[in-house]
Amino acid sequence: MAALNATANGGMGGGKTRIGCEIDFDADGKQVSWLKLPFSVHRSAYGHIAIPIACIKNGKGPTLLAMSGNHGDEYEGQIATTKLIRDLDPKDIKGRVIVLPAANFPAAMAGMRTSPIDQGNLNRTFPGDPDGTPTWMISHFIETELVSRADVILDLHSGGSSLLYIPSALVAISKDKKRTERLIALAEAFGAPVGYVNAGGGDRTSTGAAERAGKLRLGTELGGAGMVGIDAKKFAEDGVRRVMEHMGIAPKSKLTTNKPKTRMMDVGGDDYYCFAPDAGLFEPYADLGAMVKKGQVAGVVQFVDNPLREPVPAYFGRDGMVLCKRVPGRVERGDCLFHLATDRD
Q1: Secondary-structure breakdown of the chain: helix, strand, coil percentages, each rounded to the nearest 5
Q2: Strand 194-198 relative to strand 168-172: parallel, antiparallel, unpaired?
Q3: Which residues pair with 282 in a beta bridge?
Q4: Nearest residue to 335 via CA among 257, 281, 258
Q5: Which domain holds residue 188?
Q6: How far apart are CA 120 and CA 210, in angstroms?
Q7: At 99, which CATH number?
């Protein structure tokens, strides 16, 4: 096995993956294995990082790539996909489901948003680099070997350690009106309380990978706060199944016929976000689901080290509903405190 010779993380995207994979994606049945990312370090000269992966297939049909652990401290999706691997039987589907439960495996094992090995944020490294450090190698493998095989990419995120969301499904608006309609239908099929449309995270994200391949990508924000919320976890588990049913991979069930109505919303530009104006201890004045107005005080930064100093207020930049809020009380200037959503026309 060749040792990893890490180069600059150029995100070049081209070239053949160096990550080994024993899965035969064309074979029927259930296969569960580990990707082998070559990683030569002091404790293991010819070692590799073992990243779990599964493929469940039965005949011809559409392919779903269900991915979680893109950010390692976002747990609801990791639990949902791990259980899916155990529970899904090939005889119950028509088509193929590829599952990557801990996409940025080093980050997932450390419970961190980014990799402790190379500080890589997987969702900012696409299309990756086969000769890069581990995070860039992983994103290159996902784009070239998995996204290329899928019809729909379901990338399960949540708020992680620093944010808490109303459970939501999200899609990036497309210049192609019909594509946008298909994406919104996917978000509604997922069945979260909120579905929102934004401009996307750019070409370095899994959204960019899907767009380059001409595939549909559905994201989520399922709770967060560095924990596993019971309701958020249930939305993740049920949502994956509903997407399978929507695609025709699994037959319709009560999960789809009785699914809750999704409130479709928009998340737009900078005025949808509220940021800390100074470093200190943030005292919030609004909670999830609150309807707020432009110019309303969102909260104040208190200065416990200097009690005589007057607190500094933060303001909402527009009318909207609080979709997401910060979890840790300590803030630095520029930390996201809230972001809003507005109902679609």
Answers
A1: 25, 30, 45
A2: parallel
A3: 301
A4: 281
A5: 29-266
A6: 20
A7: 3.40.630.10
First-to-last C-alpha distance (Å) of the chain = 56
pTM of the model: 0.94
Closest of 63, 62, 214, 39 to residue 138, by C-alpha: 39
Angle at 192 between CA 228 and CA 217, to 5 degrees: 95
Domain boundary among the residues 250, 266, 282 is at: 266
Cα–Cα distance, 232 to 251 (Å, whole number) = 24
Residue 220 and residue 294 share a domain: no
Supply 312's token pair.
């500094």
Q: Are residues 129 and 97 part of one domain?
A: yes
CB 296 within 8 A of CB 316: yes
The two structure tokens encoding residue 74: 């976002």
Distance CA 281, CA 22 (A): 50
Tens of pLDDT, residues 217-273: 999 999 999 999 999 999 999 999 999 999 999 999 999 999 999 999 999 999 999
